[in-house]
């Protein structure tokens, strides 16, 4: 039997459900059908319990030794009852002793077509409640780590504080009222998109473009199952202003170069139509052409970024100061930035020359953009993809159980109380239903 | 065990694959490990049915779960607020959004309302109200110190969860039941308790029947003041007056709890003698070594006891703290 650390966490063959946000795990949860333990009589009770406990233990703290869990297990299942203050004010409890000592008889509707079953309190779903007290699992439940194992790693590496003190033990059992804080950088790393492959070190990022073009498809194909086609094609659409410069793979300068060439061509054609243009405008155009040439050659160099070149181009176009309608089309930097749109962009309104020209809506949008950039900057030093975005498939796993109160801004949470069962629901997040949990609970009662 | 010095076939599997990929495309047929040049794992020859089914799922159904819903809210495998399709008894509950947390902090810290009053007004559990305020204080502290908040993370997570917000100054729908009674183990047994038929057997009597020291449910609930308020209303008190009574009762109970805590701390402080040296602070307490319990083996007494083994020096005993003050 391989040690827990060596076992593979996610498999497609004979799958086990795990405390993890992996897409394989999501797929396994999706295709998991009711195991139907105990529905037929071809299994002994022992076998039923064995199978049920196996299914659940794979999810609940598979990184915890069975011995440790057995010591943690408690047969005391916590629950609460909702007490309506109005009812308690109206009655002093003696109504429950009425009749033959257990309250007035409820009139049974024997002739009703259908009688709804009573809602039960799913006590058995609380079988793994003591696990939820563990620090590492609480961190996973608070959505600070993408798996219980990762949460454990954070604790061991001193990234977690309990009540303001570093707590290096993942097995620490939280007490009601304990506050735990996780290093925000670790949380952003755990829950954010990973860095794009090959972009992590600067050496690769500054490689010659033709070299990279060769490596890219090869890498994409070698990635195989891990980074499938969907992930490879999923290059996030980003504002060029917020693009992570050194981290991003060498930018595709072709559109930028094309834009410069197009502008140059347009300027030349305007110059050729001698009559429509005034002398000063002609001078402007000529100086523009003069400046455009070195810009074009610079755009061809490997270290060039479209942002730099475009900003320079924008300032040049601004200097051009043409009031002519045809020249205006050439001067639209937006058209230059996106070559596909360039033909349609002719009808656009003149770009604002300075901040004062913006109207209220545009100013608001600008402020919002600046704020967004400020709170979610592109930072190549970070070990995750910047600007930060939630990792894939996170939303399907995102829930916070009621026994935790989380403040995501400071990556801290308070363990309010132990999980409890109520009428109709249990607070322990467990992937299987009542019957499976009941069998597992019975296994750990050790009366087998 | 794989060979320490990689054989030609295993070492070159990755690089060979990279080269051969142009000749014969093997998309999605190789293991992820073959990306690493140092891997000694041989690449998988063929794709399995299982893997193909997974890929298919990923392109069709799985694609819905890759990104959070653009309009916000939960995005679970089942369409409802049930993250695990096989467990209808676990549901994802709403969490307080930023505005609601700010409102709670404002009420408690700025307007000086009691935790119980805020809890009863907004329908948020008392412990949660206290936790929200505590966490919000940490957040404000970070802001004042110029420490960066994890705002993008917060926005993303709250966008994925069902959230609850409150409108100030109006009656709001409660977030959760606030007056929940813990089911005490002593009350879980079935009891045969003969009483006179004529007797008014109340909750008070029931508690005494279960255990001599047990309090009645009216006293054990988190909001006994609410029951009193409802009683006042039933006796014809005006709602405003009943509310005022409730608020003063809540203040009173909170004050009493605070006084009790202070008293306890004072008693602790008085019983401790502190001697501060340059390096350590020694704290001495009077301990009666005769207080050892009925059989002389009470678990929490000081000193070595006959027949009680001390495991704390034994090899392999991990001493994980049980609480962090």
Describe it.
The complex is a heterodimer of chains A (448) and B (325). Chain A is 40% helix and 6% strand. In chain A, α5 crosses α6, α11 packs antiparallel against α12 and α12 runs antiparallel to α13. Chain B contains twelve helices and five strands. β1 of chain A pairs antiparallel with β3 of chain B. Chain A: This is RNA-binding S4 domain-containing protein. Chain A: Pfam families: S4.
Briefly, what is this?
By secondary structure, chain A is mainly alpha-helical. Helix content of chain A is 40%, strand content 6%. In chain A, strands 3-2-4-6-5 form a five-stranded antiparallel β-sheet.
Q: In one word, what is the shape of chain B?
A: extended
Average pLDDT reading of chain A: 78
State the strand order across the main sheet of chain A: 3-2-4-6-5
Please count the helical segments of chain A: 17
Number of helices of chain B: 12
Q: Overall pLDDT of chain B, averaged?
A: 86
* Major beta sheet summary of chain A: 5 strands, antiparallel
Structural class of chain A: mainly alpha
The string of secondary-structure elements of chain B, in order, is: HHHHEHHHHEEHHHHEE
- Rounded to the nearest angstrom, the distance between the terminal CA atoms of chain A is 24 Å
Beta-strand percentage range of chain A: 5-15%
Which oligomeric state applies? heterodimer
Strand content of chain B: 5-15%
| Biggest interface | A-B, 107 and 110 residues
Rg of chain B, rounded, reads 31 Å
Poorly predicted residue ranges of chain B:
6-34
Helix-and-strand structural type of chain B: mainly alpha
C-alpha termini separation of chain B:
48 Å
Family (chain A): Belongs to the universal ribosomal protein uS4 family.
InterPro entries (chain A): Ribosomal_uS4 (IPR022801), Ribosomal_uS4_CS (IPR018079), S4_RNA-bd (IPR002942), S4_RNA-bd_sf (IPR036986)
Region (Disordered) (chain A): 191-285, 331-354
Keywords (chain A): Ribonucleoprotein, Ribosomal protein, RNA-binding, rRNA-binding
